[in-house]
């Protein structure tokens, strides 16, 4: 397996229980994936904490309704200790090449070693490769600059002028946190977002104790999942519910005192077509603080001293944060992946990424992806999706072992699946505007 993030760890537990020998190759020095890499101030999980835990390891002690990043990473490290997962992980080992030869996968790692395995599972995540903005002059900035997923905690922000470029889920949480902490912050917003402003209350002692009661935990989790399923139909079906979501999300925007700022931040794209950032400090109120500015003019270039706007105004900065997202279409790449008959993943995905049911590909036998193309859709909490995908992969592995065969979806089955997605997609929110769910080159696939 490649990757020791949430997906890889989930699968590790399943493989341990199934008694299947495995190795996890992890290119970093520790586990946790996105929760290890993203440490920016104000980061919290955007689904209920309890929906983000492994179903086989409840946690009754989340400090808040939506847990902050350090707590999630600590939970992952704790569960890894309890379950002995580390024994199976080879840290600082990047798989640079995987080739399907004579019915098995030959792996080459960054340290020059080779291994041969029967089944290869890619658990590399999909928001892993940071994307820096292609703004002229970026390299020449004389202050400190870093991507949101590579936060430089060595830089003290007190008394500094900080620019945050990007207003997705990361940029919103960073800008509001810096503003509330009194930092002089300018938030560059290219496309105003629909933002879900909501409280993030501390959990109470009584609530934590109640979860420990027999059946209480299971009951509440099940109720929540059912409720969530009902709630999220607005993403897949047009109608009044979708309009109601837009009206509800706009309430904190309408409550802004400054009418000019309110219009600057008014979204002009359909609700839900990009993933809705979650704000637990009321982003709109935070941007009205005297130490916060919102900039919606187009950025012309970056100068050594700051950011030059389209009208020639130069805004001076000491620190620039690029909250400019990820290459969500990379998946396991840049790893070289060569399937049956020498077909490369580049060739397979030349018209855009796709998969059979989010987990496999024709021409890539005994190869599986966790949260592969079509899986990251945001209406199912990731552990729930992983529960289904890991179960499915194990059933396929089991069937292949019984038949002493390798497993891959047929082209026909994959075509049918992709056609089905294509047919259903126009009704969903995801086609409403450019977003990271759909790459730039996937026009032929979707
Ligand atoms: P993102 O959603 O892709 O947002 C990137 C932002 O950068 C957008 O506002 C984009 O503007 C802007 N941008 C990109 N290039 C630019 C340029 N050259 N000039 C100006 N602006 C530029 O990335 P993200 O905020 O890191 O979030 C990615 C995903 O990570 C989220 O959708 C979510 O799934 C996940 N996430 C989750 C959590 C959580 O669970 N709490 C927190 C953070 C992130 P445009 O909109 O105009 O393109």
List keywords for this structure.
globular; binds NADP nicotinamide-adenine-dinucleotide phosphate; alpha/beta; 446 residues
Describe this structure as you would to a colleague.
The protein has two domains: about 5-130 and about 325-410, FAD/NAD(P)-binding domain; about 140-320. The two termini are about 30 Å apart. It has helices at about 5-20, 35, 70-85, 170-180, 205-210, 215-230, 235, 240-255, 260-265, 285, 345-350, 380-405, 410-425; strands at about 25, 90, 95-100, 105-110, 115, 120, 145, 160-165, 185-190, 195, 280, 290-295, 300-305, 305-310, 315, 320, 335-340, 365-370. Helix 1 (about 5-20) packs across helix 12. It has a five-stranded parallel beta sheet with strand order 7-16-8-9-12, with helices on one face. The radius of gyration is 23 Å and the shape is globular. The chain is α/β, with parallel strands linked by helices. The structure holds NADP nicotinamide-adenine-dinucleotide phosphate (NAP). NADP nicotinamide-adenine-dinucleotide phosphate binds near residues 43, 191, 326 and 436. NADP nicotinamide-adenine-dinucleotide phosphate binds near residues 168, 170 and 275.
Number of domains: 2
Strand order of the largest sheet: 7-16-8-9-12
The small-molecule ligands in this entry are: NADP nicotinamide-adenine-dinucleotide phosphate
| CATH superfamily membership of the largest domain | FAD/NAD(P)-binding domain
Can you tell me the CATH architecture of the largest domain?
3-Layer(bba) Sandwich
CATH class of the largest domain: Alpha Beta
Largest sheet: 5 strands, parallel
User: What is the rounded Rg?
Assistant: 23 Å
Shape: globular
What's the overall average pLDDT, rounded? 93
Number of helices: 13
> What structural category arises from helix and sheet content?
alpha/beta
Measured between the Cα atoms of the first and last residue, the distance is 29 Å
| Helix share, percent | 25-40%
How much of the sequence is in beta strands? 15-25%
Q: Write down the CATH topology of the largest domain.
A: FAD/NAD(P)-binding domain
Task: Catalogue the unreliable spans.
Answer: 442-446
The count of strands amounts to: 18
Oligomer: single chain
